[in-house]
Amino acid sequence: MKTRTQGEIIKTLNPLLRGFANYYRGVVSSETFSYIAHRVWQYLYRIINN
């Protein structure tokens, strides 16, 4: 089992989230960031439960 620190997870997520937000910045932002929050939750849930 690979243990990752909170900082490592944040470093992994930051560029992904920044790129996603920049790509969809022309769309309704509340919907975009709601989707991002949902996907981050799913990603963290998978990390915690593996």
Can you tell me about this structure?
The structure is a single chain. Helix 1 runs antiparallel to helix 2. It is built from two helices and no strands. The mean pLDDT is 82. It has 50 residues and is mainly α.
Give a nutshell description of this structure.
With 50 residues, this protein is mainly alpha-helical. It contains two helices and no strands. It has one domain (6-49).
Highlighted features:
elongated; single chain; 2 helices; mainly alpha; 50 residues
- Strand content is under 5%
Q: Give the overall pLDDT as a whole number.
A: 82
How much helix, percentage-wise, in residues? over 70%
Note the overall shape.
elongated
Order of helices and strands: HH
Number of helices: 2
Quickly count the domains. Answer: 1
C-alpha termini separation: 8 Å
Structural class: mainly alpha
Number of strands: 0
Low-confidence stretches: none
Give the radius of gyration: 12 Å
Major β-sheet profile: none
Annotate the secondary structure layout.
Blueprint: H1 6-23, H2 29-49
Helix pairs in contact: 1-2
